[in-house]
Amino acid sequence: MTPGRRQRVSISLLKSEWDYFSKLNLLQEKYRTPSSRHTETHKVFIRHVDEMLQRHLLFRNSLQEKLSGDEQNRALGDAFLKLTTQDNSAFCDAYLGYTAVLATILTTEFCRESN
């Protein structure tokens, strides 16, 4: 991959991380305050969202820092390693839990809106 293309991919990834973090923040705001409608699934979901927010904030900040410095050639790899190697099993568990519970949460939301 050429340096110019690598830079464009890195910037695109950084932009998508900003977007993804923003969407996770919206989910956290929506489900953070318990209501009578919230089930145990909602509580599990918000724990996973919290974990994803922490991880992706670290990843985004690390990537942004690397891209603004002299280490641009290793920026993606270093930032990704920081995201995944802190506690790899916790990261995988949080992501798997988040995606598994997300389907239930969305189904519940769609059913509620259609009624």
Automatic annotation (TrEMBL):
One of its GO terms (molecular function) is guanyl-nucleotide exchange factor activity. PROSITE patterns: DH_2 (PS50010). This is Rho guanine nucleotide exchange factor 33-like. It comes from Ictalurus punctatus (Channel catfish). Residues 5-98 form the DH domain. Signal peptide: none annotated. It holds the Pfam family RhoGEF. It comes from the Eukaryota.
